[in-house]
Design brief:
The complex is a heterodimer of chains A (about 500) and B (about 80). Chain A is mostly helical. In chain A, about 70% of the residues lie in helices and about 0% in strands. Chain A has three domains: about 30-175, no CATH class; about 190-265 and about 410-510, no CATH class; about 275-400, no CATH class. Chain B is built from four helices and no strands. The relative contact order of chain B is 0.21. Classes of the chains: A mainly alpha (about 500), B mainly alpha (about 80). The interface between A and B is medium-sized, with 19 and 15 residues.
């Protein structure tokens, strides 16, 4: 049951009404029941055992930890390690065993093996495994370090791990910041409920009017890329960048809006990422909760290992204070980006497209920054000027698009072939000779997509200086209603629906 | 190391900050945060803490590394350990 499906909306409307009718002390119990029901309805029922197992392991780990006296540091560490490994173990088996097998088979083929050396295994992967595993691991580690309070109620921890809106594609939660509010009573607040619903409507607009529509064009080109070259590939890739953004951030608007109407405020995952002037900044604006998680639980711990402390010291002696420090950071960042890539899925296209390629970008940005600054000074270019800012934004977007091309391709081989095709053929005339209309979207669809993207741009520009919902809320009543009804009707009239008025799945649902 | 006063800790800490961020004009207070020092980003955070640890002969745990909100909290942790 996808959250954009008609049935799900009925399910949610029912929950929302019931949520404020029952005694507020029982609200969290209702959410837990709904989460379990959601899991059972949208999956092979047995798969619910995976998240339940993860919650149980974390719960048991924390109980054990509480029983170990603080002075027994070794044993505490042991309990932490076993809890982490058990959780990561489930994740690795489900998501990465085949990645290892494919890689070994691929290498074997290079060396002349004709068949598969090892046969891949079919696993049914439970919904949201990468998201809930990270939310739970963060909780365990924070309790270990004493910055989160342990949750001694098993069922409450289960709600934190399996809360149904978040299980689809995040955001990744931090228990120490967002955990407790799940269990607090929430009185009905008209403003909060309506604002949540407004945000949901905007999410549906992004998903159904923009993402699903652009997806048609993207699928046409990526599905038969040998037939398309040059500008076709650039157009499809730019469309994909917007599709991915509106799909994922639209999903977040729905999830965060839904939660807001239930009185639960979740962390933001996006902050107008396409306005970023550098790749480093892009990652502070795109999939923010993943970035923060990776920073706190991968990057910092790696940098603080004895190996990296020593590396830092020896490279500082060798390359000088500034350079040495920088190179050591690059080395640690390699591990970070490798992990980010692998997190997206067991496939080299993810490892490259959303991992190592971005590592390369950031390293280049750091290394090229001083010579670029020197050049600009020499040519008397105002580095803080509007034009330079715009060029930086366009450059960043272009680099992101290359990563997305890998991400969307069927394989690294396909991505490289597409890149080759994209630069080999010069055919910008397809932009105006009507050839774009053969890619699955007719003229009307193109206009709708363009207008919707325009609207997205305007809203994004406005968001930079404050909440658009606040702005609308300050308008006179008729204007306010007109805006929200127009948005609702736009979704109903211009949304791309699949069978049974349900949209396709979310892209990040697969992770 | 004998017991230092908060002022003495700050005196030493300022030197560490100036050295790490290559800026002689930095003076930190209880309320200084990463937002106040341009170079203090997530990449420099760990370098800074490593330099502080070395200077004071103490250790931050990972929880403190990610949760300390300002320099005041950093000094509290340092004072508790020296």
């Amino acid at each position: 049951m996808g959250i954009t499906s008609f049935y799900f909306l009925c399910f949610f409307a029912f929950i929302l009404i019931l949520y404020y009718l029952i005694p507020h002390k029982l609200q969290w119990g209702l959410l837990l029941l709904c989460s379990i029901a959601y899991y059972l309805l949208s999956n092979n029922g047995m798969l619910i055992l995976y998240p339940v197992a993860s919650v149980s392991v974390c719960y048991a780990g924390i109980r054990l930890l509480a029983a170990v006296p603080p002075e027994n540091a070794g044993k505490r560490r042991g309990v932490l390690l076993v809890t982490i490994l058990a959780n990561i173990g489930i994740l690795v088996v489900l998501k990465y065993v085949n990645f290892g097998i494919y890689t070994i088979d691929g290498i074997a083929r290079i060396f002349g093996s004709s068949g598969d050396l090892i046969r891949s295994v079919d696993f049914l992967v439970p919904l949201g495994v990468s998201f809930y595993t990270f939310s739970l691991l963060g909780y365990v580690i924070d309790v270990y370090y004493g910055i989160a309070r342990p949750q001694n109620n098993y069922l409450k921890l289960m709600l934190y791990g399996m809360y149904f809106p978040v299980i689809i594609s995040g955001p990744i939660l931090k228990y120490r910041e967002h955990g407790e509010q799940f269990f607090e009573p929430h009185a009905f607040d008209y403003r909060r409920v309506t604002r949540g619903l407004q945000r949901m409507a905007w999410g549906f607009f992004k998903k159904l009017v923009i993402a699903e529509r652009l997806g048609i064009l993207v699928d046409t080109v990526y599905g038969a890329y040998p037939d398309y070259a040059g500008t076709y590939i650039w157009v499809a890739t730019v469309c994909y960048a917007f599709q991915l953004y509106t799909d994922f951030s639209g999903c977040m608007d729905i999830v965060l809006g839904m939660s807001e109407s239930l009185g639960i405020i979740l962390p933001e995952n996006f902050r107008t990422p396409f306005f970023a002037g550098s790749i480093a900044e892009y990652w502070r604006r795109w999939h923010i909760t993943l970035g923060v998680w990776m920073k706190e639980y991968v990057f910092y711990p790696v940098l603080r290992t004895r190996f990296f402390t020593e590396l830092n010291r020896s490279w500082r002696d060798r390359f000088g204070k500034k350079r040495g420090k920088q190179y050591a950071t690059f080395a640690a960042m390699f591990i970070l980006w490798l992990t980010v890539g692998i997190w997206h899925g067991g496939d080299w296209k993810f490892v490259i497209g959303s991992g190592l390629l971005h590592w390369f970008y950031i390293v280049m940005e750091e290394l090229l920054a001083p010579p670029c600054a020197a050049l600009m000074e020499k040519w008397h270019v105002d580095a803080g000027g509007k034009l330079v800012g715009l060029i930086r934004i366009v450059r960043t977007f272009f680099l992101v698009c290359i990563g997305d091309l890998f991400f969307r391709s069927a394989s690294v081989g396909d991505a490289l072939a597409m890149l080759k095709g994209a630069v080999r053929v010069w055919n910008p005339h397809i932009l105006w000779n009507g050839a774009l209309l053969t890619l699955g979207l007719d003229g009307a669809d193109m206009v709708i997509a363009a207008v919707a993207l325009m609207l997205l741009l305007i809203v994004s520009l406005l968001e930079r200086t404050g909440s658009v919902r606040d702005r609308v809320a300050r308008m006179p009543l008729p204007v306010r209603w007109l805006i929200w009804y127009a948005l609702l009707f736009a979704v109903i009239l211009f949304g791309c629906y699949g069978p049974g008025y349900s949209a396709g799945e979310f892209i990040y649902q697969g992770f | 190391m004998g017991k230092m006063s908060r002022e003495e800790v700050y005196e030493k800490l300022n030197e560490v900050f100036r050295d790490v961020f290559d800026d002689e004009d930095i003076t930190v207070t209880d309320t200084t945060t990463a937002d106040d020092i341009e170079e203090w980003d997530s990449l420099e955070h760990i370098n800074l803490l490593a330099a502080v640890e070395q200077e004071f002969g103490m250790k931050f745990n990972m929880g403190q590394v990610v949760s300390m909100k300002n320099v005041g909290e950093m000094v509290d942790i340092i004072m508790a350990q020296i």
